[in-house]
Amino acid sequence: MNEKTNKDFMNKIQTVNISRKKFIKGLTAAGGIAALGPLITACNNAADEITSNGSEPGQAGIAIKKDEPMIAMFSTLDNNYYKMWNRGAEQAVAALDMKYDQFVDENDPGTQLASFETLVPQQDNQMFFITTPGSSNILTIAQLANENQTYMTNTWNMPDWTTPIDTGDYYVTYFTPNSIEGGYKMAKILFEEMGGKGKLAQVSGFPGHTADWQRTVGLERALEEYPDIELVASQPGNWNRSDSQSVMEDILSAHPDIDGVYAQNDDTGIGAMQALEERGMKGIPITGNDGNEETMELIQEGRFTATLTSHPFWQAGYSAVRVYDAFHGWEPTVPERMMYTGDMVIDKNNVDAYHEKFYTQEEIPIDWKLMSRVLNPDDWDPQNNVWPLEPESMWGTRDKPSGYRESKEIKESKDSGEWEEITQLYEQHYKKKILE
Questions:
Q1: In this predicted model, what pLDDT tens digit does every residue of 357-402 receive, in sequence order?
Q2: Which of 68, 92, 388, 402 could bridge 368 with an S-S bond, Cβ 3.0-4.6 Å?
Q3: What total of structural domains would you count in the chain?
Q4: Any idea what the CATH number is for the domain that residue 110 is in?
Q5: In sequence order, what E strands does 83-132 have?
Q6: Quick one: which H or E segment has residue 301?
Q7: pLDDT tens profile 79-99
Q8: CA dihedral of 308, 313, 316, 321, whole degrees rounded to 10
């Protein structure tokens, strides 16, 4: 290794909080194993001059990089959910002293994949946090990320019975709320508002989307407990108001005496509500999912029963922080590669407080830096419920692929008790509540 290469490599490793595993990988790439001796000596000397901010005992503390690009990829800015997602992403990246960029795919997996293929080979682009418009492109994106040593996190969609562990280290974490449980919870709220009986219409989202089929599973589970609720119609509203209004109009033509609407996101619920109100059918119970600002205003007006918010601003910000930490050397355990994230029912009892806290001020009241395992190795706080996701809980109602076996890493982690340890660790660190 020549003097210039040695100096360049030392400058690089002094800007990143790096684990021993990644350090050895970097040394090997820089000049082969023969180069380890002098570089280790140099690194030990450098370590004496800096303060540790590592998340493991003995981990070298390295100054954090600034002004690196962090790229968010998501569906659209024409949807209120993703407008809040984008706000959280932008503010979190700014708090981390990084540069924010965004790419929207307008619900087209091919467009998102093409953008990723273009951006990822560029050496400056090593941090992506994304939410995909479907499951079809995610494994290809993860493969590209690993081939280019680019860190990524993903939220919401994931192919059945797959995990980030299947694709390599650079797909850091898959995050999602438990949409089966969330769907079940919202169905029960709706059924109680209907008095436990009556005719029900379901307006779903995009067929095949992970959250969509899971919310339907939750609905079906709740229907088993309410034999006097009759599901008379179910049609996809494609996550948007226009399609959902048309769908609801068709449903009302066949079933003009609907008693309640189970909508699988807020925009489908609002589209259904508009169709009902145009027919003079006001006060029909409707539940949704997302927690958009307009939905909260409708709850305040008594025109919408309840919604389930997954805190889109928090989702985006936490995904950004996770990929930031991985970029700076933090390595997740096996249970931290797939995690559920908390949600919250918003109804007439708490809508005023939630709306006031998150929708009436420019800066979202979340401490983004406090989430970081690198910046706060001892007192990090996710500021929401986060816990490990077991594949059986996610896909237990879906057929397993032929020859499927649980990964060796997951089995060993469960057998060792690590799953419970990580669950407890996140419970202990969750101190600042979303709504206090």
A1: 999 999 999 999 999 999 999 999 999 999 999 999 999 999 999 9
A2: 92
A3: 3
A4: 3.40.50.2300
A5: 99-104, 127-131
A6: helix 293-301
A7: 889 999 999 999 999 999 999
A8: -120
424 and 394, same structural domain? yes
**53 vs 64: CA distance, rounded Å:** 9
Instruction: Bin 157: left if φ > 0, else alpha if -120 < ψ < 50, else beta.
Output: beta
Q: Are residues 33 and 85 in the same domain?
A: no
Domain boundary among 308, 339, 367: 308
Q: Each residue of 183-216: pLDDT tens digit?
A: 999 999 999 999 999 999 999 999 989 999 999 9
Does the residue 38 lie in any domain? Answer: yes
Q: Which domain holds residue 8?
A: 3-47
Residue 53 near residue 61 (C-beta atoms within 8 A): yes
Query: 72 pairs with which residues across the strands?
Result: 102, 129
Burial (0-12, 13-18, 19+ Cβ within 10 Å), 219: buried
In this prediction, residue 193 carries a pLDDT of 98
Output the six-digit token pair for 323.
């990929």
Cβ partners under 8 Å of residue 224, min gap 6? none
Examine the domain organization and report whether 186 and 304 are in the same domain.
yes
Residue 66 lies in a domain: no
- Residue 127 bridge partners (DSSP): 151
What number of other Cβ atoms are within 10 A of residue 4's Cβ? 8
Q: Which residue has the tokens 């503010």?
A: 91
**Token digits of residue 405:** 């076996």
d(C-alpha 349, C-alpha 306), whole Å: 10
pTM of structure: 0.86
Q: Cα–Cα distance between 63 and 254 in angstroms, integer?
A: 65
DSSP character for 55?
A: S
Structure tokens at 120: 């990822």
Instruction: Collapse the DSSP code of 44 into the 3-class scheme (helix H, G, I; strand E, B; otherwise coil) and give the result.
Output: helix
Compute the distance between CA of residue 238 and CA of residue 207 in angstroms, rounded to an integer: 8
